[in-house]
Design a protein that fits this description.
192 residues, mainly beta, six-stranded antiparallel sheet, 15% helix
Amino acid sequence: AGMYIADPMARTVAFDPPVNSAGAKLVGLSFADRQYYHDLMTTKARVFRDVYQARGGMSVPAVAIGVPVLDRAAAVKGFVLGWFDVNRLNTIFSRYNQSGCEMVIVDREGRLICSSAYAAGTYEEIVTLANSREFQLAQADRQGRGYFVGSQFSAAPPADVFLREGEYLAFETVPGANWKIWNRQSLVPLKQ
């Protein structure tokens, strides 16, 4: 986790941690190529950064929240950005890695933020779930619940749902960030 303050051109003026893992100073770096910088400058409002491969203070998948610093005339004088390594979330989510159950958070583009399928500290390169059936369903609606039997999804369980190989899926959208959270539970343990 870390935080920095940047000027209006996205050049860092303060950074915590002050050096990266190689010992290089982090003050003076430019982050003008980052989408969150452009979003901050355009909206002049808080932004949630989708998952990205960090550079600077760390080099793993990360998420960030940025807030512009405005003067009385609403001109951007700089911004503050805080981020954290998504493996911290995986530490929490991995506790729920049970037989047939998976909890997932993805960003608005379907890139994995965290999943109970990953052991703590093992998520090192960004993975996309944009083509997954779960993400496709979550993109179509802000929230939902239902059952998969084979490739068919239904809000109501089929009459024989407990006799078949199926899964229960529930998903929600995080307000402001438009990230998707879902929980998928196999129905197989219920047959046993």
